[in-house]
Amino acid sequence: MLIKPLKILIKGVLLLLLVLVLVGLILPQSYSVNKTIEINANIDAVKPLITDFNQWQKWSPWEKVDPSIRFTLGEPSSGLGAHQSWKGKWGYGEMIITSVSQNKVSFNILLNAEHIIRGTFNFSEQNGIVTLIFKINGQTTAPLISGYTAILSEYVLRNTVSLGLNNLKTVAQLSHSQRTMHSHDSQDSTSEN
User: Fold this and answer.
1) Alpha helices (H) in 38-145, listed in sequence order
2) In whole angstroms, how large is the CA radius of gyration of the chain?
3) What is the spatial distance between Cα 27 and Cα 147, in angstroms, rounded to a whole number?
4) Taking residues 107-119, what's their average pLDDT?
5) Dist CA 114 CA 30 (whole Å)
6) How many CB atoms lie within 10 A of CB 26?
7) Which of 16, 37, 54, 187 keeps 20 to 30 A from 136, CA to CA?
């Protein structure tokens, strides 16, 4: 009596697993995240926070997302060719800045020695406001589950990038305000003499 329901249950579980594998194979293996933020500062206050990995600890959200993560800065640590690597509970990776121009910074990330991500920060400034457009594209390579991994990666990155860009905005605006105040203080002391 008990054997027949058990056989039905096993067949049902196997069928469900087969469906999950087939759906995983059909799902797209690539993902992308695009976010835009406006920052009340000039490009000179924003860009160094991105091109210098020494500055990332001021705004990057990854240490809050994964407290076990440990970053190692390479040489150079800023500008074209800047390199950093990390290890944490979710794996390891490395990032390199591949190009720097007046209005764009491009980078590549290699996760767990197999998962490649490419991204850009695009800047434009008008009337003291920087519009920063962040784009990231990746492709997963995990056999059978790449589609699911792509969905999860996009979800995690979408939320983490939003947090990071908001942190970047706060840090850049504070830095810009401090520079502006310092500049006004210097001008006032010069005019008094």
Assistant:
1) 43-51, 62-65
2) 23
3) 5
4) 89
5) 14
6) 8
7) 54
Q: Give CA–CA dist 127/57, Å, rounded.
A: 28
- Taking the whole predicted model, whether its pTM rises above 0.85 is answered as no
Map residue 57 onto helix, strand or coil.
Answer: helix
Q: Which long-range contacts (CB under 8 A, 24 or more apart) does 77-82 make?
A: 77/52, 77/53, 78/48, 78/51, 78/52, 78/53, 78/54, 79/51, 79/52, 82/51, 82/52, 82/53
Integer Cα distance of 36 and 57 in angstroms: 21
On the question of pLDDT at 146 being above 80, the answer is: no
In whole angstroms, give the CA distance from residue 58 to residue 171.
Answer: 7
CA dihedral 124, 44, 102, 94 (to 10 degrees): -100
136-154 b/e with 16+ CB inside 10 Å = b?
bebbbeeeebbbbbbeebb
Instruction: Quote the pLDDT of residue 192.
Output: 52
Q: How far is CA 152 from the centre of its chain?
A: 14
Distance CA 168, CA 157 (A): 16
For 144-169, what is the mean pLDDT?
87
